[in-house]
Amino acid sequence: MKRLFEGFQPQNYKLELNPDTDTMKISGTVTISGQKVGRPSQRLTLHQHGLKVTEATITRHDKKLTQTKAVTRISHHKSFDEVRLHTEDQLFPGQYSITLHFEGKIQDSMHGIYASTYEFEGKKSKIVSTQFESHHAREAFPCVDEPEAKATFDLTLVSPEGETAISNMPHKSQSDANGKRTTVFETTPKMSTYLLAFIYGDLHCKEAKTTGGVDVRVWATKAQKPETLDFALDVAKRGIEFFDEYYGVPYPLAKCDHVAIPDFSSGAMENWGLITYRERCLLVDPATTSQSGREIVATVVLHELSHQWFGNLVTMRWWDDLWLNESFANVMEYVATNALFPEWEIWNTFITTEGLGALRRDAIAGVQAVKTEVRHPDEISTLFDPSIVYAKGGRLLNMLMNYVGQDDFRKGLKTYFTKHKYKNTQGKDLWAAISEASGKDVAAFMDPWLTRSGYPVVEVKQEGKDLCLHQHHFLMDTQKADPERIWPVPLLSDSADVPALLQEKKLETTLSSTDFVRINQGAIGHYIVRYANEAHASSIAKLVSDQKLGIADRLMLLSDSASLGQAGVQSFAESLKLLEHYSKESSDPVWDIMAMIIGIARRFVDVEPKLEAPIKALIRDLIEEQYQRLGWDELAGENSQDTKLRATIIALGVYSEHKEILDRALTLFETYKQDQQSIHSELRGIVFTAAVRHNKSDAFAYLLDLDGQTNNVDLKQDIMGALTAVRDAGHITTLLARLKDSDQVRQQDVDHWLVYLLRSRYGRDQAWDWLRDNWGWIEETFGSDKSYDYFPRYAASAFSTQKLLDEYKAFFEPMKDQPALTRNIVMGIEELENRVAWLERDLAPVAKYFKTSL
Ligand code: BES
Ligand code: ZN
Question: How far is the CA of 37 from the centre of ligand 2 (A)?
Fold first, then answer.
């Protein structure tokens, strides 16, 4: 892709913006000082999208004279997102300043400069905020909208008098006149356009100061109670203190604001000094937020804080190195959360959510590598694949941390920040710093993992003392695997006779004992393992029942077995047999995987309803022991894992119609209507779902009404989960009809409501019809949003039958040439083909396992 930075390199923007919510128009002026480079030409090009530049002047600043160059024509180029200023004179390389007057729009969608509406005490209000990543700054002002074009910014913002106005930097001055408030902000450090931000609205906050003297504030609209800001404030303050120390480079700005925005496309955005969030990712209500909710808030805040260094202070040169931002922030979420909340044992969650998400997605043919080329601007948003650039990238960096050791890793980071601060980098700059610190060739270890998609299955064949290790590229469709592709695999074995790295396709060695070896201990390596010898596999399964394996190893064994099953290397019935070894299991993260196996088994119900009863019976057996241990009420002094496990057990109990659990859930729903504190926050959603599914009195109507009444984000989340579980077709129609009405369902939540309905057996067909019938509206509303490519992705995740595969293909294949959708459509079809083939292949052995005749 052509870069404007190769023609003009901005140094400073003097920007004045006046976004007016009465007219929904923006008027602005910008003076950009910078260097023209390259060949002399008669034009100067900047990015813009949807702007109208009404007036432009170009001034040349020579050593001796300052000279104005007449602009003869201003042309806007929609397909290139550009505005070109044409001059009669040749513009020679050198120092220039360009002043532009322009007009733009406050957007209806959730990027550029946009407005969110909310209701509080019967009054509707607006809050105006920005979302510029990845390439939406050009919707707010003409600029060189590329990460490499770092400059300083002097922002002046005009907003309504009486409202709070915030930007990246502290106020320099503020004055009120004629109902308008003009705020001048301090000059920013050198930074990329996508990190600029501002907000105005009627907000309230809580504040604190870090030991290093940074002012920290957490903000929300007044529709959110003040106490919902406390938890994030504590994390935000301690987070900066942690990173100051961990990175060895202090947070460079005087303040850091965190703001919850009612309409927000992604989870959060790391704008330098002004981090913005979806409300659910920042607010914790002590009365209603569950443990899992708190964990989300802490990890999101720490993710965005880590970007203040990795991403903001040092930035990737171009989007193909996006992983430098996101993979890094992903792993640092866990490093920092573990430091702040060691009692949560959050590294297990790293494996169960990020790790397994990555392993599943990365086994589908057509998946991108962590480091991926960008050919078209619409492709940028598709790079942010949560399973790859976040989860897999984070996992690879964790693997590297383990390979070089924590101390050298941190030493390398410190060098990297010191050397590259306020500049841009590529992956090799980071490798150079860590190589220098560790003395290891980091590029040789990491590049194959970053630039090749997929991962290996390592086959372990041990006969007595003879050991043979063999790696193959692993894909759900084994036919499509690349026979040549190999990786430097860290073996992480329990035997000193096994080398640290498997660098070749096949390795044969002799052990000093006949004890069976294990590899990938701690599930740190991004690969799966197959113990080929039956006796070997059962000896390891026995370690599970004897409770002699660690948590990560227990859960990985089960997960690997499911992957091998779905790829046809073995039957999925093997995974169900393996599950029997977990009957005494009491660890929450392991139960997450057990629940996942059950979820996979439930796919068979879509093709053979007869299997529903035996699957439910299996679940009831499996949960009984933990249900007896945990019951319904929090035990004195119980740890957070048990709190979460109780929810998993009770949810499985409700699904499997465990009589006592289901009855209790339905009774609790009635109690809730009288006393809203009567259900533990971790269980509230499950109780709601049970009541709706089992058509308890007027549960559907009651919750639908409650959704309209409340601004509480936890309640709204639980209500969505419950309502979308409804069985009644008329009710499903009601829910679908709300999706296009932003007074009832916020734009930010539409994809969630839809995917929940698609994943429900009862909602699926209607939701699928709705998606196809309303595609025009989806495209118009979300076409340029980060979430656009989730639609084909979510649909593929929900389907299991040949009929739906055919319909999916018929509908989405014609859209394959939209760059924003290509990858997810190709992979969606692939995923469905794999699943349909697998269900057909394994139906007989699974039915046999359940003693069900077909
Ligand atoms: N930089 C991203 C958000 C983003 C990405 C905005 C692409 C627009 C385009 C931010 O740091 C992020 O990664 N947010 C995550 C939440 C995170 C904690 C996983 C998100 O929004 O999903
Ligand atoms: Zn991020």
Answer: 32
